[in-house]
Amino acid sequence: MAGRECYHCKQWIEQGEEHDCWTTTEAALTQDLSEELQDAWTRLRETAVTFGDQRIYASGTCIMFSRESCYFFVRPKRSGLEVCVFLGRELKAPQVRRADRKSKTKVANILKITHRDQVEPPVTDWLQEAYELPDMLASRADATRVTSKRKPRPKKKRARSKRR
């Protein structure tokens, strides 16, 4: 039979068959989770929804939570939920697996959630802080613009032409 193997997902696709391995949903990403992880995921999602207006969508292997830009995402795995929270600082806590600076203003803090009871303060406080971070950064930028004065440009020296 004629067909091909998908470069991305390694699935065998028959000739003429449609295939879209990039399109995914929250349900598809969380369907294989254990009951404990399903409960943790539900609590995490419900907590994030209470913060306010945002977009929640599945992308690749992650479920993204964003306002104008992503403020945290969840990567569901069999062993737990890998949660990446973008904050303006590096977290020092036992729940944090690692922290990577991603820009001048943001640090990606990686957490691992294995049970519903872990989705409570301080984790929920960090999520709230991440949700509010763009507002804080914008107000800081506005304050900097208002208080900073423009430096005067140094005058250029003109070269004098020599007359003979």
Describe this structure in words.
By secondary structure, the chain is an alpha+beta fold. It has one domain (17-142). Helices cover 27% and strands 27% of the residues. The chain contains 3 helices and 8 strands, in the order E-E-H-H-E-E-E-E-E-E-H. The strands form 2 sheets. It has a 6-stranded antiparallel sheet. A two-stranded antiparallel sheet has the order 1-2. Strand 1 (3-5) and strand 2 (12-14) form a beta hairpin. The protein is flat and about 90 Å long. The N and C termini lie far apart (92 Å).
- What does the largest sheet look like? 6 strands, antiparallel
Task: Please count the helical segments.
Answer: 3
Q: How many structural domains does the protein architecture include?
A: 1
Give helix and strand order, one letter per element, not per position.
Answer: EEHHEEEEEEH
Bulk shape: flat
Structure summarized in a few sentences:
With 164 residues, the protein is α+β, with helices and mostly antiparallel strands. It has one domain.
